[in-house]
Amino acid sequence: MSTINYDLTKIKSFIFDVDGVLSCQTVPLSEDGQPLRTTNVRDGYAIHHAVRSGFDVAVITGGRSEIVRRRLESLGVRHIYLKSRDKTVQLKEYMEETGFVREEIVYVGDDIIDYLVMKEVGLPVAPADACPEIKEISIYISPVKGGEGVARDVIEQVLKVQGKWMVDDAFYW
Fold it and tell me: Which annotated residues bind substrate (predicted)?
């Protein structure tokens, strides 16, 4: 049922990086030099479904995009940390605020900036195109690239194991 070598019944929280995880590694720039992010609609559905199913979803990113914040809020994400310089600081704050312990948390990251925070959670996950150092410390390496459905992959596997995937409210937005 799952290809993740971890007790997924423990998971209560998903935390994602943005660039290279929820959006592709290549980021186009606007006329004024601002990065434009892509989003994956299946990731969006999975995040929204996870929230409605009682999971907490958070984002910790060094990015500063208010558009990204608005998109995440529309999906039900309540804990959004932008402009993060040291992601372990936000993880600690998040854990104190929510009461989650490391074994209950998935963190999906793709690059060196995610290294330290990934070592602080129970289930560190990397997209297929993550850098080698991140893959090395990940319990699960998704076959999906960042921005192409890696969040959907992880959320779907957890919800299936917990019996929360193909349930009545899954068919409605």
Answer: 19
